[in-house]
Amino acid sequence: PAVAQRVLDFFAHGAARSAETFPQLSDREREVLDLLAHGDSNSRIATRLTISEKTVRNHVSNIFAKLAVADRSQAIVRAREAGLGVHPPYER
Q: Does the model's pTM come out above 0.85?
């Protein structure tokens, strides 16, 4: 029952919570951060979002600056603490 409730809560409020958690990030940056937290490479993120790897690198750099983190692992830790990257990413 507890897991079922968490799943229902996520689908009811998950997207709003992540926007509240990282208000300084754009919607696309939050998407990229979620996929980073899921463990995807820049190449895989580019494919999933149908954007170039250069654009992904730009988003990742912006995320690092906005979250005041030095590297990918610190960004992933922050994202996972906020609940990102724990659900399977959607397929395009």
A: no
